[in-house]
Amino acid sequence: SSTVQNNRGLMRSEATMWDVWTALVRASSISGGVGCSSSQRMRHWRAVLCVAALSSVCWYGRGRGGPGAVLRGALWPCAWVSASPTSRGQVSRLASSACGSPHRRQFVILSRSRLRGQRRHAIADQVGLALSQSLQERLGQAPVDVDLDVQLHFSRHGHACTRQLLDGVEMDELRGVIENAVRVSEFEAWQWTVRSHFGEAIANQMEDVFDCQDTLDGIPVAFLQHFNLWRQSEGVRALTHSPRIAKVAASLLGTKKVRLYQDAVFVKRPGDSTTRWHADLHMAPFDTNGMVTCWLPLSPVPAQADGGSGLMFISGSQRDVALGFWRKEPQKARLNLEGRYGEEAMQDHHGALALGDATWHHGWTLHGAPCLAAEGPSARMALAMTYIADGTRIRGDDVDADVDDEDSFSYRAWLGDLSPGSIAE
């Protein structure tokens, strides 16, 4: 291998695929031998075979405590279609072990989320982020009127449920597109989680998912959040801009037109902690009451009594002006919620959700979610689409309340283009 100097002064070396392949076989023979269970040995060899089958991978050596390594293959954009995050992590650790590195992350496979510009979007196109023409046409069809009972329930309680907003065939295709988009934004989701716990400075120091996981080690995480996938996935864009979804949002807000504020995919994994009570408008940059969120789970959600982790709502909390008026940080206020709103206001209002069902909540409605049991079979993934009434204004300079900037990761790219008090458009 030949050593080269990069522009940051770190030492890097270029190796051949055969060098890495040999090292991986050696590492698997050692670490997958004595003292390892059959499942552990299978995971080691699965990581090795992953590299062999792909034939080309892209490595990035950070060179902590010594030379790093870079290996580039001619077909590297295709590698990410097959390599799962788990396999990338296993291969990375095996390579470090084989080279005798004291740093278990001496070699790290670049995730898609680390790529920028045309490279990233070129890869995204290969992973399948677009919907079929037939589904795009169906989503673009004229919407039906929203049931009056749904509108009345939303007006009274601050939340509602629309059953079979999308059918099973539509959801199956949408789920695949959204899952692919989530894989592309893996690093950003972890970095946002670090930021919400430790602030901007620490989050900016993160270089990959491993960094984020190490930083968050031992800290309860409620979910991973992937912001604004509509910007990178034509499929998600078709859904968030669908007249069918916008019609419900406008009807519930009592307005003629709505604008998309953001979308976010929430991934709650087995063992993730409870999502605290909160109201979305405390974290949004708007001076309005006209905001609503559609929460669309990508798989059926059992009732809470059966271990489900759907959203919980506090009925009537959207009308509780005093909550935010007398408290600078209502999100963190220690309140007896049952005493304030009544026991019935905090029940599992909508029960189990079938595939295609969606819940809706007002921007001022307090909501949260229970934890997901560690022994649960799989993660719960849901797409949240948030809309504002047309004509909504950005918060002005006269706002004197403390603002929760947890979601600034979502809107900071465009907020600077609008002056305080101007219309959000």
> Shape from CA axes?
globular
Q: Helical residue percent?
A: 25-40%
Strand content: 15-25%
User: From the helix content, strand content and strand pairing, which structural class follows?
Assistant: alpha+beta
What does this structure look like?
The chain has 16 helices and 16 strands. With 425 residues, it is an alpha+beta fold. A six-stranded antiparallel β-sheet has the order 6-13-11-15-8-7. It has a three-stranded mixed β-sheet with strand order 1-2-4, with no helix packed on it. It has a three-stranded antiparallel β-sheet with strand order 9-14-12, with no helix packed on it. Helix 1 crosses helix 4 (85-98), helix 3 crosses helix 5 and helix 9 packs parallel to helix 11 (209-215). Residues 1-16, 30-34, 53-90 and 92-127 have low confidence and may be disordered.
Which characteristics define this entry?
6-stranded antiparallel β-sheet; 16 helices; alpha+beta; 3-stranded mixed β-sheet; 425 residues
